[in-house]
Amino acid sequence: MSEDVDMDNPNISELKSLRNNINWTKDIERHYFLEKMYPLIKNWKGQLPNLLAFFQPKEIECLLTDAVKHVFAIQHGKEAVLLFIKFVIETGYRDKPDFDGDGRRLLHRATPVHQEAKRNFFTRDNVIYELLKIYDRFDVIYADKSGFSHFHVVCKYGYVDLIEKFLEAGQDPNCLVRETGDTPLHVALYSEKKEVFELLLKKGANPNVANIKGLTPFHVICQQYYANGDLARKFLQAIYDIGLKLSSSFIIDAPDPLGQTPLHMAVYRRRKVLVELLLNVEIDPNLTDAEGSTALHIVCKSIDEDYKLTEMLFKGCDDKHRLLQVNTQDKEGDTPLIWAVQRQHRKLMEFLLRRGADPTLANSRGLTPLRIVCIRKDDESATILFEHSQDHYKSALVHTRDSLGQLSLNFALDKSHPTLLELLLKHGADPNSACADGWTSLHVIAKRRDLAPMMEKLFEPSKPNYKPPRVDARDKDGNTPLHFAVSHGNRLSMGYLLSKGANPNLANSRGSTPLHLACKSYCLMDWADSFFELGDRMEQRVQLDPRDGRLHTAPRCSELEKRLDSRVSFEKGRRCDCSQCARGNSFAHYLRDRMARPPRGVAVQCHRRKSADVADQLPGQRG
């Protein structure tokens, strides 16, 4: 390159002509200039010119920026761009730092190097490497407004020789990208440049510095979906080589703002090689993130079951004589087992139970694994809970109450889960144990017609751990299961209870017997006959006219009155327990009073008749 311009050279003349015809304010004209430069440079003959004789430094930088920024808008594309950059280099042009009015060097300046690096291409025919031959001052900080400097660029692209030159010129190996907080280590690891981070660590780069997102360089390795054990292994080896000790000078368990450690990240992304590597160093596998989740929680809450990863976690801890806690509860109270049950990861359930998982722990919603299984009617999972739980938990499974005092047996009945019912009875569940309201298993069944077929399962003496249900057990209001069966229209349960010896004459705390309750319902017209027939069949004497604690209960319609009327006549000649009839207080008196009222009337007070001549009159016998 000559300082003198040879104007006789036709190439120089064409270059000058192109230069004079540029309108620098229009992108399209600058692009046209670059397109015309391609054949000119390609066929250049003779000495290369001094570009400063034709262009100002800012004009040269503008053309370089256009070349890398609009590469696809220029004819011949990247070939033309690279040819132009090499032409500038060969002419001997080198950038010089800018200074302000006081002669101080300007620190922040975006260059074509920044423009090319922002395209996020790892390599493109060494465009960046060639540009750095123009911007070759290693003692100058070329940084854009974000703080991303040429030093960060060479770390991103792995130009080790240039990194060494920067460091020799006094570059800080921990300089931050102001906008992101990334160090050169972060930048190198984003691009997986092994040689770069090894060099940086040797030159004093701090592996514990977190960026604005709270990520350390090691987090960067673990959080990427293509994270591999080889990169992490080399990073940790480099840490050891420079004499940093894990958990002291280098904090491998550092959490990010979400509380996630490198182990959380590796497990979440299922990087088994990386997980195995982490378990072989000094980490705490029981650390929790912001949600209270351990690495084991993350495995269990995953939609897809990963049994091998779970085995790896336990084996890694066993080999290092560390205890992996299986019953840690997250902020919602969920244990790893609860998550495994919710996701129906049955192999994980078996494994966790064998390792001591507690199946009785409830979450903040009061749900235990057994409750979840029951709600979902998951027979297979229910069997797993009983077969694989450790012995000291099996009894607790049966007898544990929830926050409302409800027993597992009653819950299984309430959710109509026959398999779980049999499992609970097999393992010693007591059908006579009552909840906070005093309801036993028979009460629960008697309330619902759809559960009636399950009542028979409670009366199977041949089953192991059989405990005979008490058919006349009372709740806190004095109601027996028969009261419930009658008041809820549960014919099957009523018949079964009477067949098992239920007493039809027991009154609750209000003095009402099952017959009172039957007479209160609009829909039980047929119940009188059924009730008495069942009583006859079971040789149970049904009292026709007992008083309740407040008043007699009015039959709901004339049809029921007629049936009771005929029943009274029949019972008086047979074996009716009519102790009050002689005192003039028979149920017949009540029916006679009731006949004058509308069929849908409410309960009325039974007035004692003092007249002896009406004491035994039946309805319809008016005097």
From TrEMBL:
InterPro entries in UniProt: Ankyrin_rpt (IPR002110), Ankyrin_rpt-contain_sf (IPR036770)
GO cellular component: nucleus
Domain of life of the organism encoding this protein: Eukaryota
Any single GO BP term: regulation of gene expression
Gene3D superfamilies in UniProt: Ankyrin repeat-containing domain (1.25.40.20)
Placement of ANK repeats on the sequence: 180-212, 258-290, 332-364, 404-436, 477-509
Keywords tagged on the record: ANK repeat, Repeat
Coiled coil: none
Protein name: Uncharacterized protein
Originating organism: Trichogramma brassicae
Top-level taxonomy: Eukaryota, Metazoa, Ecdysozoa, Arthropoda, Hexapoda
